[in-house]
Predict the structure.
Amino acid sequence: MKLFTLIMAFSTSKAIAQSSEHTPPSSYMLREMHEVPVPDSVSLWPQTVGWQVLGVIVVLWLAYMLYRRVWVWWQNRYRTEALAALDTLGNMQNMTPSERSQALFRMLKTVLVYLDSRHASLFSVPFLQQLDRYTPHSQGGFNTALGQRWMQSLVNPTITLDASEGKALLATSRVWIKAHEPRLGQRDDATNMPEVQDPKPSAKERQ
């Protein structure tokens, strides 16, 4: 009996202690609460036809602009090469004025032939006129007293250009390479120009 009494007393005291602690709310208190639905992700693709058409137009315009830039670069790559050759020619200190004049003539002749193979036989005044024909709106040009003296120096060793004249020709050539318009020189009268043989290269150039 005493043991039974002790057990009952211990159970009663434990139940009282548990009842005094905080108990969590029962599940019936949460039955009215609902889970918040997660909204669908927002699509970056336009939902209306108008925006889709506009997007296609923008993409096509960007593709066209990229094509134009690549096309312009490809069509003008010879200008970059010619300007680089001109810089190299101007920086060569071991060349005589005669050799420099010969090299400048051959470089410009190479550009002319690249633009139109019919220019391969041009020399002297017809050569200068054809250069100017590609830049009709530019001031100065090649068909001047200096240009004609340059042509004479190519075939007459007694005529030489001084340093200032050489620099003036290099500057005119640089402007011409940058500003000439290929479509302006494509004329039928280029074939009617007199043919004059190019001057023979010097012994140093042949080496």
Q: What stands out?
A: The first helix runs from residue 2 to 20. Residues 69 and 182 are 18 Å apart (CA to CA).
